[in-house]
Design brief:
This is Major facilitator superfamily (MFS) profile domain-containing protein. It is found in: Membrane. It is a multi-pass membrane protein. Pfam families: Sugar_tr. This protein is mainly alpha-helical. The protein is built from 26 helices and no strands.
């Protein structure tokens, strides 16, 4: 943190307008988004190098699972002289899949400390190093005949993915001008969604989804890492991190000048005044314990964690898990059902591409409530038609409609908003902790779904989707009563609206 002398000096250099004047000037200046070439480079490189790679590692493991299980069994026999039974092989495969989620939870939990100690840009570079180590382990595990290399690789890319989801939305929101913060905030969600689809494509039998080439599929994302990290020496550090966390005013101003381009002196002066106001604000807590103990941060922290966890508990991963069997019940062959599942993933990606436009033009509260309400309806309807699917012939088609409808409306709010809402509710000092806690909730709930869904499916049958529908209803109520509108507002203006916990009047 900056000393009082430094703060006084900065106030002399950059006299502060009142809070009302500052926010009014920001609104007027940011009516037209300002995309500089450096800002566009950072947005695309971090999205393709970080978020797409994360989604790729999520989606690449499903299709070649049978081939990889056979290889694991053969490798265990050759290495240790023993054969795994069906239950033992299923347990080993569950470990290979779930260790990625464990790594994601650990990586997201460490994101707060890493972001404040090393910086937002450095976290992105660390992610690249971890992804590279994982790709090397994936590529050589088959030649080395080592299941251990495969498992360690999954854990390492899990660490990288958790760090990406905890820090990338924060990094992009802090390098963006106010008018573009919502737009850049959804880049991570779009990238993860796109990465899942790319992973599904690369594991098709016509590409790398064969007995001899599956390890190429696991490591193919390394091409993205190379391309996106080559220009990383040009990337700026977050000006807010430099100014507020490190107290380096001069470096922060230099980075702002690089990001905003020419003829942006007025905008830069306003952003410096905004950062100075935040530096002098009362909320300067940055450690986990400080954030958890501060009653002013309780409600926004609950919102961030519930949005992240609720995104997973709303059933999106379960829907993709179940969609192939639904398509088969509708009369498709297994191969055609796989292609239909890929089509569902492409729909998910296509709608997610509307995210930047939606976030720039529509309010967060409206989009989130609209998305939660319709997703809840489609999930409830899916449970109903699944229960009677054998009695009514056209219910198979209705199941497909419910799945596609759920995916369509999921990307209006439930998909993108949880990734960046923490950046709009929290000021810079506690932001990294909030983003890490939200990311941890997401990875933990993802792990819970992966472990419990097959068991609940066997026990409850079609009604397994009802808890997901209830989750959407609860998120709708949380949004309606406690989420303030954040579009076009600086976090310093939003934070007081939720500072009184559940007694806050967000409207």
């Amino acid at each position: 943190m900056a000393s009082k002398g430094q703060q006084a000096e900065a106030q002399q250099l950059y006299p502060q307008p009142s809070r009302v004047e500052l926010l009014t000037a920001q609104t007027e200046t940011n009516q037209k988004p300002r995309w500089s070439s450096l800002l566009l480079l950072v947005a695309l490189a971090t999205t393709f190098g970080g978020a797409v790679s994360t989604g790729y590692c999520i989606g690449v493991i499903n299709a070649p699972s049978k081939l990889m299980k056979v290889w694991c069994n053969q490798t265990i026999h050759e290495t240790y002289g023993s054969n795994l039974g069906k239950s033992g092989l299923d347990l080993l495969w569950s470990c290979i899949v779930s260790v990625f989620l464990v790594g994601g939870a650990i990586g997201s939990l460490g994101g707060a400390g890493a972001a404040n100690k090393f910086g937002r840009k450095a976290c992105f570079l660390i992610c690249g190093g971890l992804f590279t180590v994982g790709a090397v382990l994936f590529f050589f595990c088959r030649a080395a005949g080592s299941v251990e290399m495969l498992m360690i690789g999954r854990f390492v890319v899990g660490l990288a993915s958790g760090l990406v989801t905890a820090t990338q939305p924060m990094y992009l929101s802090e390098v963006a001008p106010l008018a573009l913060r919502g737009t850049l905030g959804v880049f991570c969600a779009v990238g993860v969604t796109g990465g899942v689809v790319v992973g599904q494509v690369f594991t098709l039998a016509d590409v790398f989804g064969t007995e001899e080439l599956w390890h190429y599929a696991l490591a193919a994302y390394m091409l993205l890492i190379i391309v996106c990290y080559l220009p990383s020496y040009k990337f700026p550090e977050s000006p807010k991190f430099l100014y507020i966390v490190k107290g380096n005013r001069a470096a922060a101003k230099r980075e702002l000048q690089r990001l905003r381009g020419k003829n942006a002196d007025e905008l830069i002066a306003q952003e410096i005044a905004e950062m100075e106001a935040e530096t002098n604000a009362k909320v300067q807590t940055s450690s986990f314990c400080d954030v958890l103990r501060d009653p002013r941060l309780t409600l926004p922290l609950i919102i961030v964690c519930c949005f992240h966890g609720g995104q997973q508990l709303s059933g999106i991963n379960a829907i993709f898990y179940y969609s192939v069997s639904i398509f088969e019940k509708a009369g498709l062959s297994n191969e055609n059902a796989q292609w239909a599942n890929l089509g569902a993933g492409c729909l998910n990606l296509t709608i997610s591409l509307l995210g930047p436009w939606l976030m720039a033009c529509r309010n967060r509260r409206t989009l989130m409530m609209f998305s939660c309400a319709l997703c809840s309806v489609f999930l409830f309807t899916l449970s109903f038609v699944l229960f009677y699917i054998d009695q009514v012939s056209w219910f198979a088609i209705a199941c497909i409609v419910c799945i596609m409808g759920y995916i369509f409306f999921f990307q209006f709010g439930l998909g993108p908003i949880p990734y960046f809402i923490g950046s709009e509710l929290f000021e810079v000092a506690p932001r990294s902790v909030a983003m890490s806690m939200g990311s941890l909730a997401s990875w933990s709930c993802n792990f819970i779904i992966g472990i419990s869904f097959p068991l609940l499916q066997n026990a409850w049958g079609a009604f397994v989707f009802l808890p997901f529908s209830i989750t959407c209803v609860l998120l709708f109520l949380l949004t309606k009563f406690y989420l303030p509108e954040t579009r076009g507002r600086d976090p310093s203006e939003v934070a007081p609206l939720v500072s009184k916990g559940f007694r806050s009047k967000v409207k």
